[in-house]
Amino acid sequence: MKKLFLPALALVLCISSSKAVLNEKNLAQTLSVLRIELMNTYKEQRISLLRINQMNEIQHQSMIAIMQQSDQVALMLYSQKQDYTFDLTYACHEATEQFRQFRMKRMPYDKILQKLNTDINRYNGMITTLQQLPPSLIKQAQPQPKPGEKMPPRPKGKSLPFMLSKQGQADRAACLSYAIAIRDQITMQRNNIIKDNEHYERVSLKLKEVNDYAIHRYRNIQQSIFVNGDDTYFSTLKRFSRAVSLARQDVNDKYQDRGYRHTHSEWRGPIVIGLIIFVIFYLIIATILSNVIVRVMMRNIKSLRTEEFQKKKFCLILAAGVFIFAISIMIVRGFMDHNFFIMASGLLVQFAWLLGAILASLLIRLKGDQIKSGFRIYSPIMLMSFIIIAFRIIFIPNRLVNLIFPPILLVFTLWQLNVIRRHNINISRNDIFFTWISLAVMTISCAFSWFGYVLLAVQLIIWWMFQLAAIQTITCCYDLLRLYKAKVLDKKIAAFGAAIGETAAANASEEVKEITAKRKKGTHIRITWFYDLLSMAFFPVLGVLSVLWCIWWAAAIFDLTDACFSIFMTPFVNLPGVCQLSLFKIVLVVGMFFIFRYINYAIRNFYQDIKLSSLKRKAKTSIISANETNFTLSNNITTILVWGIYIIFTIVLLKVPKSGISIVTAGLATGVGFAMKDLLENFFYGVSLMAGRLRVGDYIECDSIRGKVDSITYQSTQIATADGCIIAFLNSSLFSKNFKNLTRNHSYEMVKIPVGIAYGANVEEVRKLLLNAVKSMLAKDASGRDIISESRGINVLFNDFGDNSINLDITFWVLVEDRFTYVSKVKEIIYDTLTEHHIEIPYPQRDIYIRQMPDKK
After folding, report:
1. How far apart are CA 620 and CA 612, in angstroms?
2. C-alpha closest to that of 188 among 48, 64, 4, 21
3. Predicted local confidence at residue 691, as pLDDT
4. Using an 8 Å Cβ cutoff, are 694 and 712 in contact?
């Protein structure tokens, strides 16, 4: 097909090589330069003509081959019987594929002809201009007198303004000869293009006629598979002998070589036997090579000499054999020119890759004790799929399929049920789930086949085989991803945390959970971005797209890919002015959901990472508390923008009318606007809070309620109190009241603990003891911050002379979130220190004097 249009392309390049002259010194120099340019162009065209003539011959032979192939496909298609569905679908596929390939490589003949006509007109204009140069080479006709008038006398003595010199006339003559020759060559090539276009149109009409007939037969096949069906198998059993006789007759007509002794056919019985021998030969080679490879690996790799590997040895040999078989068939297929072997080997390679994907997934996901059970529970569906592929390869007649397939499918369904009962304990939950789906698919297919829809059952089984292979592959990739995270990613995160000074107790489960949670939220986005991309976007999108892809691939068994593609694209809900829904659009919307989810996640966390890095550089520290930053507003803005774009994309894709959205929006704005005063007030106050006045994680105090900010929305702010309660304040309430942000500046709060000691005690000595006692409580939290800030000062101040004691105040700065715990610990250690050093903490005392009044006598 590509050779068909090489001459046209070469011609365009040849014509484009024509040179031109610019504004020279004078006319004589222009003619001289033009002569040289035209001479060079003429020589180049003469050389190109030889190549173009060769290409024209190739084009002619290619056109003949296409005509013969179109006639061959037409005869093959028109000769097919309606009862041979596999044969008919193959012929229809060849017809539609040939027409599609032919149209894909259509050359723009109109544009080529337009360019050639432009060049011809250009050279015609050049020739006319050259001929008109004085002395003109164009003979002007003498005006003839009217009847009764005399011939007018010729003017005498009238001279021309200028005349070409002899050299100019010689140059003009040469230019004229070259220009005429070039124009004639272009005209000849234009005529050839016109003839090629006529041949192309003739072939195109013939291919279109065959394609239209193939599409009509496709519709009959679809009607037979999905709507009409055949007789139920119960009715077939009533006339079983008759059904067997008809099936035997179809087999004899299909596979016996009667009448073909002197005429060789590529699709008759001996060829099928040859294919079987061919497949068995390469299976033996693949088996031998896989055994040799596995044994060599066991001898040379010590890590494989384990009991776990020995348990997986059989499945590994089988998987390696399948891949070797697929690769060898692909290599041999490249040297084949036999249509039947090319078609059959292509289907065998597809099945081998599917089988290899399932086996590789079992090897990676399952343990040695589970591998045999895993292989057994998938054996029925894999073997059933191979039988269906074999039906497709040998183009088994419909009557034979209708006779043998329902009982075979019933046997395999019972086999699947049996293996689930026997091996459902020793495998993972995912595999149990997949095998139950396999059983459900086989049960539904069995019911279809017994009620006459045998080909629909075949289609359903082969679809699930493809879908199962896709699911197993994606699941295997997830397992590899988790293994990569555990073996590589977690170590990188730990090393990065150690480099920036993150410290955490290894045995503190709560802290480990907190670090894990931070990582999941994207704290280490620079390290985990690729892992997150695969787990959050790529593999989910791949799973969504696999549904349509597997349906399309399964449809290829009956060569119904064009019809399948049409079903995907055709809207099943087409309401003008409302929306359009098709399977492809639904899958695209779902897939884009995962992509936009990752985009939202990545933007938010990259921004947070950049912001935290900037704060660390400014603060000249490697530790920045989460409470020292506020990402609520940025996260909300990012979420609104990203998901807003996703919603707009969905609306445009589903063709939801923008006018309807505008009307609904205007109606809602008018109807609800009067009731939104308070909502809008809280909204703007919420934006003000998110802009920096308040952060999630801040500790605030409002109305004598103290707690940690749990969330900030556009309407309210939720506070988690120390006793575990959640209290919500309207945003307008926080602004109308004087709330205290305890962590806004530096996350520390000054604490004052009053202590009374007895009169007579050495205050300076007590001060040193108390300072040492408080300093002994210095520690760091999980983020590496000082719980009690020594840099801000720890003081013991003389407050007052009390009634019963000398009143001292111990002041220090403590992290707000640790205030309650550490104030209690500091009080305890103060008491223990004073007690240990026998420093009296006096009780409140009052002296009571009892005055006795004298008795009155």
Report:
1. 12
2. 48
3. 62
4. yes
The answer to whether 718 touches 733, Cβ cutoff 8 Å, is no
Each residue of 532-549: pLDDT tens digit? 899 999 999 999 999 888
Tokens of 178: 């070259």
Q: Which pLDDT does position 627 carry in this prediction?
A: 45
Q: Report the half-sphere exposure of 591 (CA within 13 A, side-chain side).
A: 16
Tokens of 330: 């692909």
Residues 6+ apart with CB under 8 A from 430: 475
What distances in angstroms separate CA 92 from CA 156, 460, 529, 776, one per listed residue?
Answer: 83, 21, 48, 88
The two tokens of residue 189 are 């090539």
C-beta separation of 234 from 450 below 8 A: yes
Token representation of residue 695: 């952060």
How, if at all, do strands 788-789 and 748-757 pair? unpaired
- Bridge partners (DSSP) listed for residue 709: 719
pLDDT value of residue 612: 76
SS3 state of residue 838 = coil
Give me the residues paired with residue 701 across strands.
Answer: 706, 740
> Can you tell me the distance from the alpha carbon of 391 to that of 394, in angstroms, rounded to the nearest whole number?
6
Q: Which residues, other chains included, contact 181 with Cβ-Cβ below 8 Å and sequence gap of 6+?
A: 42
Distance between CA atoms of residues 53 and 58, nearest Å: 9
pLDDT of residue 595: 94
What pLDDT was estimated at residue 541? 93
Give the model's pLDDT for residue 350.
82
Count of alpha carbons within 13 Å of 539, Cβ hemisphere only?
19
β-pair partners for 721: 707
Distance of CA 259 to the CA centre of its chain: 54
pLDDT below 50 — which residues of the chain? Answer: 1-18, 157, 503-519, 625-628
Report the alpha-carbon distance of residue 353 to residue 364 in Å, rounded.
Answer: 16
Q: Phi then psi for 333, rounded to 5 degrees? A: -60, -30
Q: pTM of this prediction?
A: 0.62
Q: How many CA atoms lie within 13 A of 465 on its CB side?
A: 29
Show the DSSP H helices in 654-780 as ranges.
Answer: 658-672, 677-688, 731-736, 763-775
Burial 691-705 (b: 16+ CB within 10 A, else e): eebbbbbbbbebeee
CA atoms of 310 and 316, how far apart (whole Å): 10
Q: Strands of 740-741's sheet, edge to edge?
A: 726-730, 716-721, 705-712, 699-702, 740-741
Given a contact cutoff of 8 angstroms between Cβ atoms, the answer to whether 555 and 221 are in contact is no
Distance from C-alpha of 716 to C-alpha of 732, rounded to nearest angstrom: 8
DSSP string, 747-806: SEEEEEEEEEE-TTS-HHHHHHHHHHHHHTT--B-TTS-BSEESTT--EEEEEEE-SSSE
Look at the block and give the residue holding tokens 């000849």.
188
The DSSP code for 398 is H
